[in-house]
Design goal:
- The protein is mainly alpha-helical and 168 residues long.
- It contains six helices and two strands; from the N terminus they run H-H-H-H-E-E-H-H.
- The protein has a two-stranded antiparallel ribbon.
- The relative contact order is 0.10.
């Protein structure tokens, strides 16, 4: 369906050079990278599900989230988030504590073990990606870096797509 990994040149070629065609190619590449990403995480000492890793990462980025905020961040239901946190707490990766100013609210914080697991997974992922990048020509790596920066910049500057389709 896409031609990112096929023969060809870097020139625009008619109907295959628009945003939709490029989006399909990038989606293909992301799917391939997701496999690499998941395999690296799966090989970590402590095997965690993608949801568990996302939860830990969310708490690393925003320490002290409450359960509702974490559920919203992960786009999962409150009961699912609660069970997820139960498992992470039982594994010693997160702590729950009462909010110092809001007595009815519980804060979620990573433990040192949770930080360590995230560090290990990040290291494994970076090494796996470095292997793939090491095969590339330096000019191609630079072009990829520039393209990714441009994509992220455009995403930050432009409208944010809705997570869920409009039911109307």
């Amino acid at each position: 369906m896409t031609h990112l990994d096929g023969p060809g040149d870097d020139q625009a070629n008619g109907p295959f050079d628009g945003p939709e065609a490029t989006a399909l190619e990038i989606a293909d590449a992301v799917e391939n990278l997701t496999d690499l990403w998941s395999a690296a995480a799966h090989d970590a000492t402590l095997r965690l599900s993608p949801h568990q890793l996302r939860a830990l990462r969310a708490l690393q980025v925003t320490p002290g989230l409450n359960l509702t905020a974490l559920a919203e961040c992960l786009d999962i239901g409150l009961p699912t988030a609660s069970r997820l946190c139960d498992r992470l707490e039982a594994a010693g990766l997160l702590d729950r504590s009462f909010h110092p100013r809001k007595r009815r609210e519980v804060q979620l914080m990573l433990t040192a073990a949770g930080q360590e697991v995230l560090g290990e997974v990040a290291g494994r992922r970076a090494r796996a990606l470095a292997v793939a990048l090491g095969v590339m020509e330096p000019a191609d790596r630079d072009a990829l870096r520039r393209g990714l920066r441009a994509l992220l910049g455009a995403r930050r500057a432009g409208p944010s797509p809705s997570r869920r389709p409009d039911p109307g």
